[in-house]
Each structure stands twice: as structure tokens, then as C-alpha cells.
Specification:
By secondary structure, this protein is of the alpha+beta class. The chain has a single domain, classed as YaeB-like fold (2-Layer Sandwich). The chain is built from 3 helices and 5 strands. The chain has a 5-stranded mixed beta sheet. The relative contact order is 0.24.
Length: 86
């Protein structure tokens, strides 16, 4: 699996607390080996992010990603539930 990173993702990632960055890296590694591991709560989104999916990083931090093809995704956003879903 290849992951590409959107510039919006980078901006928000830089603002995360160190512990959340560490947790993201752990969940990213799980995602790379098994994108539908139950711990990630991988699910489809609607509305503004209709073609995207979301995975859980922590209880409140989410990653929104866009599947490009079978082996490629684009991480679009990262942030708290309230930041992402206004």
C-alpha cells in the first residue's frame, strides 16, 4: 500500500500533540498491513467527504483519506472529530 499526503494533512499534522503523532504512526503502520483492522474503525463518509473514508487514530483524532486505487490512498486531513466534521 502506498500513502500520499495532501498539503492540508501536513499542516494539521504539525499542530498535533506529540502523543497524538506517536499514535498516528502506530495506526498508520496497522493501516499499511491491514486497512480494515477493527481497531481502525475504517468507514465510508458522506456529505463533503462523499468519496472518502475515515480511520480512528485516538478516541477523537481521525484521518480522512481518499482511495486512489487498490494499492494507493491519499491522506487528506487529520484532526479531531469536531475540526473535521463541522
Amino acid at each position: 500500500m502506498k500513502i500520499f499526503i495532501h498539503k492540508n494533512f501536513i499542516k494539521r499534522y504539525k499542530k498535533l500533540r506529540p502523543n497524538d503523532k506517536k499514535r498516528f504512526k502506530e495506526r498508520r503502520d496497522i493501516f499499511l498491513t491491514d486497512p480494515f483492522n477493527p481497531i481502525l474503525n475504517n468507514h465510508a463518509l458522506g456529505g463533503e467527504y462523499k468519496k472518502c473514508r475515515s480511520i480512528n487514530v485516538t478516541g477523537d483524532i481521525r484521518v480522512i483519506y481518499l482511495p486512489v486505487d487498490k494499492n494507493t490512498v491519499l491522506f487528506v486531513e487529520i484532526g479531531s472529530h469536531s475540526q473535521l466534521y463541522k
